[in-house]
## 1
Amino acid sequence: MNGVFGKPNVMLGGASVWKGLVDGPAQVAMIDALRDVVAAAPLFRPRTRWGKEMSVRMTSCGRYGWYSDARGYRYVDTHPAGGAWPDIPDCIVALWHQVTGLERRPDCCLINLYSEGARMGLHQDRDEADFSFPVLSVSLGDDGLFRIGGDKKGGATQSLWLASGDVLMLGGASRLAYHGVDRIRFGSSSLLSGGGRINLTMRVVD
Ligand code: SIN
Ligand code: MN
């Protein structure tokens, strides 16, 4: 299931990684487009079902946004402040089609902002209806130490530093792999003026 970019240049525990796929100007274009998204749908800090505030700030664009509170993880039609989510910027949707080779558009693009000290614990992406569609993730800004295991909790894991412009796909046998981000190298990239790492995650939801 590879699109115009062909095969990944790194495999990480079944996940496909295209290191350096998004070049510098395309990264800047994505950040510019995301500025409008965040102006319309401000970043917020979700809480887990157990009431713990996440260290990552988030927002979404697309038909659905990803959300979490005491009722658990789920997709919602509107931003927590009310109002529909903005459209996914064309340059980001185009990358999805090019890498996955799919005609189907993503329903949601989750935007995660990792400021200094932020991390994300190991989890599965399993709030979607059809796991035959891949999850495509784009790293922008500071380096992040990505960790991936298998589809069972507690197994062996592997780690890889994801840099700005790297694209990672969880699909097929890796679609339900546990994954997370242990830490970022704050200030390692100058893409974001305030430093930090943005991760975009595109998914088909319905
Ligand atoms: C996520 O799994 O939601 C984010 C992964 C990442 O930040 O690379
Ligand atoms: Mn995830």
Note: Residues 24-40 form the longest helix (17 residues).
## 2
Amino acid sequence: MKNFRIYKLLVFLIILVISSCGSDDEVIYVSPSGTQLVQASFTYSISATDPNVILLNNTTQGSGEFKSEWNFGMGDELVLDQPGLEELRLNGAGSYTIKLYVTNAAGFTEASETVRVDEDGVCPSNICGGIDPSSLKGAAVGFSVGTIVRDNRLTGMHDEVIRRDFNNITSEYQMKMDVMYPSQGTYDFGPADAIVDYGVANGIDVHGHALIWHNSTPDWVENFAGTDAEFEDMIRDYIRTVLERYKGKVRSWDVVNEAIADGSNELRFDDSVFRRRMGADYIEKCFQMARDVDPDVLLFYNDYNMASDSGKRAAMFAIADRLKALNLIDGIGAQLHISYNGPARSEIQAVVDGTVSRNLLMHFAELDIRTNPEENSSVTALSSERALLQKDKYKELAEIYTDIPTANKFAFTVWGLKDNESWLLDFWGVPDFPLLFDSNFDPKPAYQGVIEGFQ
Ligand code: G3I
């Protein structure tokens, strides 16, 4: 009998998550007895008299007794909801994740909203900085438009273009382990701090990339002399140190990048010290380490060839399913380094469909579109014919992204600002023009293609 009682308690703790697609991130926990709990829900508006004050309205509806408590995203205690509107002042620029917990006899539900603040106060509809509607971010509805940055590309024309067109930034390489943690016990957060501070100062979301990646592992980690248990402790300490440093400033992280081996679609082994030292469940361990430090930061798995390789796509969704079962993943990053002539729209759509069906956030994370996939080394300029084909492909990506349900939208990020800064030039060693701006920061037809696709 005692075992049965324990079993009932365990079953009760096994919860079914039925997510709604409302404007908030709403989570409904339904106990097996079928007692529907009260679904937390709230809205907010910006004070007419003070741009840094929001008025929170608890719109939770439910029968019977229930308690509502606020977490204002500033690391303080829960605050009991009072009748009427709650006034909340948000002074510092940045993103605040506000949560409402509602508890009744059978358990609790939660709803959350992220509110962006810049130097002018709370950003209307989370769009900061007096948006130019003809800009990339001005044309995007319900998601941000991102680009990559480096600490030495945050001034002058880079700064002007970033602030006009983008509201999400990803560090191209300076928030990776080989830069932030060059030797054991010695961190170098200089470049990362510059990037994060720039994002916070300008009300631009910062996407952290990438905590764990086999291609950006410092030598001392590759050759770690301790035991496997000591290796795992070191990784836990690294993830804790980084996430605590940027808590409330970096809104999201690629926790693990490119774990799947091309061809086999198994987890990389020979080229992944993490897989070798932490075991087959290293991805779950790393996500758990991140979640243990920051319950509010959005956690992503990121990889490439998701559209062009259906086997790799299936392997990626299997990882996502394992992480979702543990309630550890918020989104998927599809890098989408593609060409003007492929992959097909249907293959890109398959990545979106698999992500949306799992109710995860979709990040088009590293967009660039090769105009010279034939690797013709005699190409000296972007022909108008290829420029228009590239425009059509960017427009296709933007249309696919715009059609994603609001609850699954996150960011549409290009992997570079202007053509001559693209990693592809060194990688392939031939001329190419893969981005939205030419080498003079002038928008190309591809830029217009994205705008048209967003509309
Ligand atoms: O800026 C320094 C320079 O001062 C120094 O002299 C030189 C030699 O050490 O290094 C330069 O930094 C290099 C940086 O690119 C800028 O060129 C780094 O060593 C080099 O590792 C870095 O490569 C980056 C690569 O990831 C590895 O981190 C690329 O910029 C970046 O575009 C690339 O991005 C990856 C994504 O993270 C994951 N998906 C694939 C994508 C393309 O490989």
Note: Residues 1-24 have pLDDT under 50 and may be disordered.
## 3
Amino acid sequence: MSSFPQSRLRRLRHIEALRALVRETRVEVGDLIYPLFVVEGNKIKQEISSMPGICRYSPDLLPKEVEDIAKLGITAVILFGIPKKKDEVGSSAYHPKGVIQQAIRAIKKTTLDLLVVTDVCLCEYTSHGHCGFVVDGYVDNDKTLELLAKTALSHAEAGADIVAPSDMMDGRVRAIRQALDKNGFQNTPILAYAAKYASAFYGPFREAAESAPQFGDRRSYQMDPPNWREALREVEQDIAEGADIVMVKPALPYLDVIRKVRDTFNHPLAAYSVSGEYAMAKAAAQQGWLDEKGIVLEMLTAIKRAGADIIITYYAKEVAKWL
Ligand code: PBG
């Protein structure tokens, strides 16, 4: 092993062309998925107060919005719905004319080359705000599976390219795979929110999607933040049930988990840089305390360096302009 003075690590650092030549990680627009909040109604565009720059759109305004997104070189969006009516079983999640089903059709009508990913969950659609069927104050795993499978199938029928279950029920990937296959959607991939933690970083999202639980919290189904071995078991199980892409969520506070998953499995890996990560960066930037472009590109680079192939980020549009 050579050491100083033969070895000088600064030799490859002194001009940008050299740094670029030996750069190990790059963030590209093609890695990014942009989240869109879709609200039922017409001509609605509302900014979310805890997520400056992020809006809810009604389906009729989506074609224009996705055209702008595609022009920036972004190749995928993930949709979250805010329905007019909520009930105990979240029935508007799987209604053929539900808000997401309308949104998918509106986007697909544009014939843009844009992948439409749909978040499959019930919390935005249930009156109690939990991600499944509630029995005596507890989210019943097995009763929820059927509702999730119906929801995923109705997204596929409306034209979704990828379905992404985020509920954290056991067995949901298998239930969704079976429902898709039985109905001719063998080629619709499942992106599983495999290791999704019960995180305080989802705060702004719950304002955006009006999906805060009306009682209790999500700790009986989402993962306990201190655990990483359990994350590997979650990923292993989702892969065994047929997940095509697995995800770790949140991203920045869970880089160690991303690295472990990357080192253990060979499936494509996504990371979700969640609403709280966006809000922190935005707030500090608006105060003039941090350089926004600098910290955001560094955050995304760190997420890729940890092993993610795909990043879901509310910063996708700004990053596309910066790169
Ligand atoms: C739905 C869902 C949530 C997020 C994505 N899908 C909220 C939650 O689980 O409470 C959070 C995304 C974000 O914070 O950006 N279950």
Note: Residues 119, 121, 123, 131, 166, 202, 205-206, 211, 218, 274-275 surround PBG (CB under 6 Å).
## 4
Amino acid sequence: MGSQEKPVEKIVVRGLEGVVAAETSISYVDGVHGRLYYQGYDIHDIAEQISFIECIFLLWNGRLPNRRECDEMRNAIVGEMKLPDAVLELLKASPEKSHPMAVLRTAVSLLSCFDPDADDTTPSANYRKAKRLAGQIPTIIAHLHRLRNGLPLLTPRPELGLSANFLHMLTGNIPDELEKRAMDILMILHADHGLNASTFAARVICSTLSDMHSAVTGAIGALKGPLHGGANEKVMGMLHEINHIDRIQEYIEGMLENKKRIMGFGHRVYRTEDPRAKHLRKYSELLCEKTSQKHLFEMSHRIEKIVFEQKGIYPNVDFYSATVQHALGIPAAYFTTIFVASRTPGWLAHIIEQYSDNRLIRPTSKYTGEMGIPFVPLGKRG
Ligand code: ACO
């Protein structure tokens, strides 16, 4: 290879760790101090105080709503919960064993074909689509679960509020006060989290001036992986596999010796406790106790202690969200879809923010292949 053919030397930042790839005012993750801010509010100050509707309004508008604005937002989103017939048919046609995340990803993509504003990326059209997606995604999840279990499909009960209504449409139960609060907090805590992998994927897609549905579809694909949102389902699998508190020490040591990841632990940004885990730990305990499954909380707590002793790492949002969701009656296969419904408002806020000051996101790579290989025509190759 001639010297003129050598690629320019480049430094690769693996996993883009520490790379600042966007400006945002939506949320801030302070990994050193273990703090999370939504539009300037510390998550510890608002998580127990606001509803999921207030949280959505905050992420989309940069301020908390008054009561009238809350009602308007709730009615607008609930008013958009009905699905096009073709999307319902897709849910029915999906192979029973296919993962709910795969069906949800495909259904969101199909929604774009029926959205009257599909390719309109003006701010007003984007706001209408955001409300539609925030309403339709929970319906897809609830309907899919009920169709697969031969249960009647339920219509929204707006008086329950967004998150409790979603839980009702999924499980068929009317949640009590503790369950309502837990579902709200679960969804609030998952609503946004800086430039995480799925949010970055969404921003990359809309930076090409592609449409909102494409960006959300891509984000769902990114969230599905076990290193991101897919970890919560795996946590429940781990708890079932361990099965007894006396087996935890041996199980965790075995995993670590074999260099395997403990699902629901570790984080790219937090170097201390994930602030979301603190709230979810509390609701895991309350709900496991209420549903006579205290052993699941006790096992989780013991796993937390042992992983910290052995490896010095903390649980992330996915760890206690598993037992919270399980105790709320949500099947494990749907855990990551609940994450999608919760994170959708955050993705939408980032998509709108990206459009408002767009520059194509197009990094570069360090080429490690060869150059200048002599060409041999097809007929002359051995
Ligand atoms: N179990 C065991 N060891 C772990 C774990 C874990 N869950 N997480 C990190 N480590 C260890 C690594 O083995 C490594 O140790 P070493 O230095 O002795 O080799 C060290 O911690 C640093 O790990 P990295 O891979 O460099 O951390 P990275 O920032 O790339 O990974 C990630 C972050 C992917 C979240 C990782 O912690 C992980 O795989 N966790 C399990 C999956 C999970 O829970 N994902 C959900 C994350 S939260 C969210 O996305 C919603």
Note: The mean pLDDT is 96.
